[in-house]
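This part of the workshop introduces the protein records we will be handling. Backbone structure tokens are a discrete shorthand for how the chain folds in space. Once this layout is familiar, the rest of the handout is easier to follow. The record below serves as our worked example for the rest of this section.
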Amino acid sequence: MFLFRQQSPSLPSGFVLDLEKAPSPVVLNRLLAKCNEETHPPRQLALALKKSSFHLSIFEESSGKLSGFVRVTSDKGLNANLWNLVAEPSRQQGQLLAVLVHRSLGILKRTMPGCSVSVSAPVMAIDALKENGFLIDPGGIRAMGFRLR
């Protein structure tokens, strides 16, 4: 069962959420690196952004600086995956992550009700994911990854 938190977390003052404008691969890699996440070759990242179902970006209103990001892929039916879930390390990091997770799940719930949602997430996002009903390794299922190079 999809336990979706009813109360939407609010975006901190001075930030805007954008569903349309994808950040450039260079800007996204900069945020990924700042969050100690793996960066990707710009051409591959641009292709991943293009092929994603949707993505959400959080920008600082005053400077336009990318402060949070998540992209979503899906088979448009049964499964969806959240990737590159990150937020600028700051005192608002948890709140930014909560907004990204909640809004992503809201879009998926409207467009693909009943789909299974998985996420590849850094440790910093665990609380935001748990607050939105994600179970860590449900039923003892462990995910594995293999880096193609």
The longest helix spans residues 93-111. The chain has one domain: 15-133. The mean pLDDT is 86. Helices lie at 25-34, 42-51, 93-111, 126-131.
